[in-house]
Amino acid sequence: MALAITFGCCNQLHAQKRHSNVESVEVFEEDFNKDGTSKKQKISESKFDSFGNEIETIEYENGKVSEKHVYTYDDKGNKISELKTESDGKKERIEYKYNDDNLRIEKSVYSEKGRLKSRKTYIYKMK
Length: 127
Prior knowledge:
With 127 residues, this protein is mostly beta strands. It has one domain (3-121): Lipocalin (Beta Barrel), CATH 2.40.128. The chain has strands spanning 3-7, 13-17, 24-32, 38-48, 54-61, 64-73, 79-86, 91-98, 104-110, 116-121. An eight-stranded antiparallel sheet has the order 3-4-5-6-7-8-9-10, with no helix packed on it. Strands 1-2 form a two-stranded antiparallel sheet.
């Protein structure tokens, strides 16, 4: 079973096992008031391919779609691209590069018009 490392809201690091039998998942958050009442709302939903790779995520804020992400992977299971669409229709394309050990070495973010907006590089110290 493979291990997927993802960065979620607020740069939190999440590790989760890939499960090839999961087709989709919906995530709900419930906030509780002092009087015991609560409000539950969907905050995201994701779809997965037959290999357990997350291929689409829709994020919600206050019951409305805030962002949609569509992901593609190489034959080694590495996420190589992401198309992010915001609720106003604005799009960004994100590309990832990996070294021979399948460690991410670069993340580049491009505007809707193809202009490079930012680039992160990853340098690993090996044991």
